[in-house]
Amino acid sequence: MIERSPLLDALTHALMIVGLIVTAFPIYVVFIASTHDLPSVNQVPMSLIPGNHLVENYAKVWSKSDFGAKMLNSLIVAVGVTVGKVILAAISAFSIVFFRYRLRMVFFWMIFITLMLPLEVRIVPTYAVAADVAEPLRWLVWLFGIELALPPVNLLNSYTGLILPLIATATGTFLYRQFFLTIPDSLVEAAKMDGAGPVRFFIEHLLPLSRNNMAALATIMFVYAWNQYLWPLLITTEQSMATATMQLQKIVPGPLFGQPPIWNEAMAATLMVMVPPLLVVIFMQHYFVRGLIASDK
Fold first, then answer.
1. What predicted TM-score, i.e. pTM, was given to this entire model?
2. Topology of domain 55-293, CATH
């Protein structure tokens, strides 16, 4: 039993308030900057009172930078990556936990080790594969001495190229594996006695039990995919395929070389880009917490 102490409660609340201020104050400054005109933002010190240019700044950024189409691209990529990661992680963890075959733990640790390899490390080979998906197949064909001409398959400037290389996730596989290990053997045996095969057991039993884990993983991966910058910047050359985070880079430096950044518009754009992942976290926080720390799985 945990004993409550007024002094400890006051100290805990004080630390939480300090943490909230430290976290929220930069966001507040961004919001304030988005409500002023450029001369007011460039003043030192900048006023911390909201200005009267909020609607003007947001409307200007939305129309000038074509943010509607860019945020739609980001939404498509984020949802596609999230769905792909959740499904692929569930299937891979299901294979590792419930099937007995040689080297399954070797495969698991090979997947887990990729946590040490961020996207920036594997960006060049990933780009090479996306530029021509058929190239690895050509090497296999050449290795086995088969004469087969494979045409190039280019995924650049496409949603497939933006989504497919990002759907593999060692984090998701690990989370699913840890949950699947808690499934009692009696449930597996009961499903077998009912005539459920592996696919039916996976769909009708494991997935419903994994909904909290799925929600937690989906929340993390949506924020991860929405905030991607380097991969979309590398793989897209057409402006129509640009994402919202890429568009921020075009706003910050100013429209012409040598001009100072238009910080009020940049801050307005930053807040607009922050809204979708923030809403996802707010609406999914209950499932997110349950999926990570619930003990009644």
1. 0.84
2. MetI-like fold (1.10.3720)
